[in-house]
Amino acid sequence: MDSISDNTLMLKVKAGQLDQLGLLFERYNRPLYGFFYRLTSDGNASEDLVQNVFVRIIKYRHTYKGDGKFSTWIFHMARNLFADYYKKEKRLGYREDVSV
User: Fold this and answer.
1) Which of 86, 32, 87 is nearest to 57 (CA)?
2) What is the CA radius of gyration of the chain?
3) Is there a contact between 53 and 81 (Cβ–Cβ < 8 Å)?
4) Model confidence pLDDT, tens digit, residues 64-87
5) Which pick of 7, 17, 40, 77 has the fewest CB atoms within 10 Å?
6) How far apart are CA 74 and CA 80, in angstroms?
7) For the chain, how many helices (H) and strands (E)?
8) Alpha-carbon gap, residue 30 to 46, rounded angstroms
């Protein structure tokens, strides 16, 4: 089953076969977690952000064209999600160093 390309899996998800998203999650969970952890240094936030990427995949699956690499599409989505997260954290006034 691992021989199925990411693009093929995502096209199946786009067509409504949401059960195929589990394979994509297995493939991209760790790389996405690492991406977010490098940006946040927060394990819990990174896990939440990974979950939110897959929620967005379901929500925006109709925008996937399949003409490029799936990894580029998912990490573009992850980057946008992190930008939203960062803006929200900044607006709410969270700071890394609370001892100041």
Assistant:
1) 32
2) 15
3) yes
4) 998 889 999 999 999 999 999 998
5) 17
6) 10
7) 4, 0
8) 10
Q: Which of 51, 70, 77 is nearest to 10 (CA)?
A: 70
Sign of the torsion angle spanned by Cα atoms 95, 44, 31, 13: negative
Phi and psi based region of residue 66 (left: phi greater than 0; alpha: psi -120 to 50; beta: remaining) = left
**What gap in Å lies between CA 73 and CA 52, rounded to an integer?**
15
> What CA–CA distance (Å, rounded) separates 97 from 20?
41
* Token pair recorded at residue 41: 């240094």
Rounded to whole angstroms, the Cα distance separating 31 from 35 reads 6
- C-alpha 4/C-alpha 8 separation (Å) is 7
CA 50 to chain centre: 5
At 15, give phi and psi (nearest 5°).
-80, -5
